[in-house]
Design goal:
Oligomer: single chain
Order of helices and strands: EHHEEEEHE
Helix content: 10-25%
Strand order of the largest sheet: 2-3-4-5-1-6
Number of strands: 6
Distance between the termini: 16 Å
Shape: globular
CATH class: Alpha Beta
Number of domains: 1
Strand content: 35-45%
Length: 119
Amino acid sequence: MKKKIFGYELVMDLFECDKKVISSSKKLKEYIDKLCKLIKMKKYGKALIPYFGDKQEYTKGYSLVQLIETSSITGHFSEYWSTAYINIFSCKKYDHRLAKRFTTEFFKAKKVKTEYLIR
């Protein structure tokens, strides 16, 4: 029996990010807009970019959810740790190397850990 592929997921943990970028809802929206265009994903609705978790210094920051016609892009950002945690999941194949390079450069991360899953 031939294995069927449901989707492709890039999981990125970015370290030592630019705090000005990860703490700006405007920059996070810009990231989503540019990323979707770059990897040829059609956005479904507007991005949700709430700021919360401010009861603890290490948990406060933005999260983002952008539905795309073939699934979603999510992210969580820690100002305290200067980190970003981003997942790009799509049933449609995309250039995950290009997405990784762009994301690393956009957030000015000094270190990135990734995993690419075929599900």
